[in-house]
Design goal:
- By secondary structure, this protein is of the alpha/beta class.
- The chain folds into two domains: 132 residues, Rossmann fold (3-Layer(aba) Sandwich), CATH 3.40.50.1370; 158 residues, Aspartate/ornithine carbamoyltransferase (Rossmann fold, 3-Layer(aba) Sandwich).
- It has 13 helices and nine strands.
- The strands form two sheets. Strands 7-6-5-8-9 form a five-stranded parallel beta sheet.
């Protein structure tokens, strides 16, 4: 994985996904070697962030490196300055770029022009760093990924897309329930089903959340309107009215099922307060694991030492 870009979960092989997870577990346990001493990561953000910014920054500190945050006002990515110029200039200063953008095309352009690795820290198309943290959390909580049934309830957004691909390549059974018009893209589903068939898992697209959750090991949801979709809020609330994760819905999952949400959450919309703050919720562990998964990813991409 050394010096590789990560724009999509599909950029990783199943073996590489598991390598990130196992490395993250080792780092989380005790390993804080300064593997990235002298290395600098640029956080190039078009969107505000809590978990993504802090987890990358602290991960680099733990590895002995340095993190530089570049706000939208400072750079004006694609406006004040062309993407290709930003990519080429940053390549002269830093060792890696983590970009949080609106359009996925922007991340792709950065990777095309940069001479250093580019990590997709969120785009409209995918959120691979979140998916890696999610798989790490499931492995940690359930002791396995193979054979686990994950039910995603809600919009077929960037989080759902990366999670679908990640689950497919790790022998999981991924079920997604979305209202008509908000499903996962058909091309991505086809790719995920191919990965699942090769690995021994499955991908199932549904419209009924009860059918998706029944007997599942993990119940996952996300906001109905993502950042940049605020104007669609009223329309989306109507479309997703039957997709709230409630205690009643969660009861149809397995007795050991955990609840996940990538945060921030809108309590009372996609999930009730009783569920997200309840005993089955692992959302805070999930948030912490962003740091551990990204630490593993950064070390595997940038470290001179073989891990």
């Amino acid at each position: 994985m050394r010096n590789r870009d990560l724009l999509s979960m599909a950029d990783l092989s199943p073996q590489e996904v598991m390598r990130v997870i196992q490395t993250a577990l080792r780092f989380k346990d005790s390993d804080r070697r300064p593997l990235l001493a002298g290395k600098t990561l640029a956080l190039l953000f078009e969107k505000p962030s809590l978990r993504t910014r802090v987890s990358f920054d602290v991960a680099m500190q733990h590895l002995g490196g340095h993190c530089l945050y570049l706000s939208p006002q400072e750079v004006g990515l694609g406006g004040r300055e062309p993407v290709k110029d930003v990519a080429r200039v940053l390549s002269r200063y830093v060792d890696c770029i983590a970009a949080r953008t609106y359009a996925h095309d922007t991340v792709e352009a950065l990777a095309r022009w940069a001479e250093v690795p580019v990590i997709n820290a969120l785009s409209a198309a995918e959120h691979p760093c979140q998916a890696l943290a999610d798989l790490l959390t499931i492995q940690e909580k359930l002791g396995r990924l193979a054979g686990v049934t994950l039910a995603f309830i809600g919009d077929g957004n960037n989080v759902a897309r990366s999670l679908c691909l990640g689950a497919a390549m790790t022998e999981m059974h991924f079920r997604v329930a979305s209202p008509a018009g908000y499903e996962l893209p058909s091309k991505l589903v086809q790719r995920a089903q191919e990965l699942a068939a090769a690995a021994g898992g499955s991908v199932t697209c549904l419209n009924d959340p009860r059918q998706a959750v029944a007997g599942s090991d993990v119940v996952y949801t996300d906001v109905w309107a993502s950042m940049g979709q605020e104007e669609e809020g009223d329309v989306r609330r109507q479309a997703f009215a039957g997709y709230q994760v409630t205690s009643e819905l969660l009861e149809s999952a397995s007795r050991q099922a955990i609840f996940m949400h990538d945060l921030p959450a809108h309590r009372g919309e996609e999930v009730t307060e009783q569920v997200i703050d309840g005993s089955r919720s692992v959302v805070l562990d999930q948030a912490e694991n962003r740091m551990h998964a990204q630490k593993a990813l950064l070390a595997l991409i940038l470290a001179e030492e073989t891990l």
